[in-house]
Amino acid sequence: MKNRYLSAFSQIDANFHHEILYISPRPFEGDSLFYRVNRAGVVRRTPSTFHIRRNETYCFGVVHCVFRGNGGVVFRGKEYPLCEGQLFLLPPYERHEYWSEGDNPLGLCFVEFYGGSTARLMDHILDHSGPVFDGTVFSDTLTYMISILSRLQAGDWLNVNLDLYGMLTAWCANIREDDPQNEIVRYVNAHFTENPLLEELAKQFGYNPAYFSRKFRQLTGMPLSQYILGRKISRACYLLIATKKSLEEIAETLGFYDVSHLIQRFRQVEGVTPAQYRRQNHGLAG
User: For 181-229, what is each residue's pLDDT tens digit?
Assistant: First the structure.
């Protein structure tokens, strides 16, 4: 079955329009070892009557980033208001509903996924917090989601899985403010553009460098240098798609030495130059 990356959701449902929608070409595998996307898309403006209700048979985890408008979500019997700059998480197999305010409808970017330990990880997050997040969690998640959409378009399944894992890890790192291990990941997420050195981080958190290196790999599944590069490239993808910043501005913002260094590292990870990536994904988050 050929991959489908559709420009209008009207091809699927006449009552609901997506400017961008991805639908998995793979059959649903409930026990998939890897994280997989079932659907993902961008809805720049939902209909004024937009109201989704699901029961316990809904088998996917889903995250929505709200970049426009107002609405609400009901989860585990509690109602939460929604506005621009917030995201909300909904786990599989739990009743929920969400909607737009008619006079100021939501604009959403969403990813619906499964596999790995989706239900267990999302339950862990939601048991320690409500379903709605904002601040740096929102901006980091939006960066991951735009990266996921572009990778889906390219059929880059391995890095889609890694982005989903990184997104889940980022959420987990924000649910316990008093956990020093989570504080390590939060600190690196907040300072990755400053190119923090392993030795400096180890000293700051009271570890020797070798132990800190092992600990960081346990927390994130990868070495510090690889994690920082991944965050930089993911954020570069977002800036290339969602802004008109020049390559010089992006390189300076993300802590690359110069434009040549940005191009070299970007090509290493994405397989194309930043300029090619911007052209290929023009309008994705416009």
Answer: 567 887 888 889 999 999 999 999 999 999 999 988 887 778 999 989 9
pLDDT for 9 beyond 60: no
Residues 102-113: what's their mean pLDDT? Answer: 91
- Contact of 258 with 232, CB cutoff 8 Å: no
Count other C-beta atoms under 10 Å from residue 232's C-beta.
23
63 alpha carbon, distance to own chain's centre: 8
Position 176 scores a pLDDT of 52
Domains of the chain, CATH where assigned:
4-154 (2.60.120.10), 180-280 (1.10.10.60)
Which residue has tokens 């970007």? 266
pTM of the model: 0.65
Tokens encoding 282: 């023009």
Cα-trace Rg, the chain: 19
DSSP of the chain, one letter per residue? Answer: ---EEES-GGGT-TT---SEEEE-SSPP-TT-SS-EEEEEEEESS--TT-EEEE-TT---EEEEEEEE-EEEEEETTEEEEEETTEEEEE-TTS-EEEEEBTTB--EEEEEEEESTTHHHHHHHHHHSS-SEE-THHHHHHHHHHHHHHHHHHHT-HHHHHHHHHHHHHHHHTTS-TT-HHHHHHHHHHHHGGG---HHHHHHHTT--HHHHHHHHHHHHSS-HHHHHHHHHHHHHHHHHHH----HHHHHHHHT-SSHHHHHHHHHHHHSS-HHHHHHHTTTTT-
Label residues 76-113 b or e (16+ Cβ within 10 Å = b): eeeeeebbeebbbbbbbebebebbbbeeebbbbbbbbb
| Overall average pLDDT of the 65-81 stretch | 91
